[in-house]
Amino acid sequence: MDPGRGAPGGSRDPPPHARTRRGRQRATSRPSVSWVKARRSTECPPAPEPPGPGSGPEPQHGSWADLPADILGLVVGRLPRADDRARLRSACRAWRAAARAHGRPPPPLPLLVLSDFTFSCFCADGAMTTGARRIPLPSRKMAVDVRCVGAFQGWLVGVQLNKGRYFGDSRCFLMNAFSRDVVRLPPPSVATHFIDAYSRSLPIANGTGAVHCTVNGAQYVMSFCKVVLSSSPDPDSKCVVAAISVHRSAAKLALWRPGMTSWCVCHGGCISKFSDIALYQGKMYMFSKLTTNLFVFDISKDDSGLMVSRVERCMAELPEVNDSYGQRWNLVEWHGKLLLVVTYLGGADGWHNICKIGVFEVDLSTNPFRFTEINSLDGDCIFISPCSSNSFRVCQYEGVEDNLIYFIDGGFYPAKNAPAFDRFVYSMRDGTMAPFAAEIPEDNLRALDGRLMNPTWLFPSE
Known about the structure:
Region (Disordered): 1-64
Pfam family, one: F-box
Structural class: mainly beta
CATH class: Mainly Beta
Largest sheet: 10 strands, mixed
Domain KIB1-4 beta-propeller: 133-426
Strand content: 35-45%
Number of strands: 27
Radius of gyration: 34 Å
Oligomer: single chain
CATH architecture: 6 Propeller
Number of helices: 4
Domain F-box: 64-100
């Protein structure tokens, strides 16, 4: 036995890396740090030792479903987009319940819904999301020849085209884009009606001509291009629906409320020259596209449902703008007030040739109405489209610029090869304009035959 083998202070055979070719031993040196790291990287980590009798319980990894409800509520409140909130709620039942239980977050930023129910989200930086995502409809049958023509909060208005060329729309329905609840409205076009018709002709006060209204008409054909609601169509609600129809160049106004089996159809007078409509404080307001006249429709309720009881013309005195050859008007409700947004058009198509954007608060207590121009939206923005326009309080979210008006507009008439929609944003601070929604391809705003598909802004409540 080697006397030094195993002795605490004896020498051992040198490791292979310390030997010379001839077997002579050289002085040993401490391995370099890089060599030790390389050696350790190739070795398997030692197996964990079993817990001893005195050690504590093994740590448990919690489930994502067990996140505290107050934390999830804070997360939802910091998600400004509706699609992101929907993804969070769809993760699991626990997240969905927790997100709804922890208070009500601020309303999400609006969605732009195209005529075929595809949509794009408005982002905090003022851009629009890309990608063709479609709001699911309750059934395949309802998705055939359907188009979106209006919105109110989380509700969308859909109509289906009759298969005949001049038969108008065959169906009309309201659908909640998130719960997918459906309220079916009377068909916009009927050939025969078996209930006695009720009609009324109303001369226009302070104007000329008359408006003719009929409930349970024996025959009418309508093709809706814009539908507005006074409130959500919840059970036992007093929601009023007003629709504008343009069919074969003839315009009609249609009114409905829950319980009616037919539309109250109105035509004649100012209806044939409408520019925009709005339901406000129990009345309907219509702006004429030829003259600066605002018409007020008083709506009464009786055994037949809804009926127009009075129509009055109110003069609108708006300032003139040099080099403007025409105007386009949009009615918008803002903080309980009625606003008129006026686009002063230049001598050529396109938003680059717009002369001015004017925003006027309408004073309905005077006759004629008084229009006062305003220069601030007090932390809000306005979103305008052919089928739906509204204001939104963007100051609830950090990084979202306020006092802006976003336009995707150009009129209601879906003519083939019509000029593209004007897509721009207007700043009320300095009066400048810039392009908007360039992320949405032009083809997405047109049908296969080249007709423009009117988009609508959707403002979810949560």
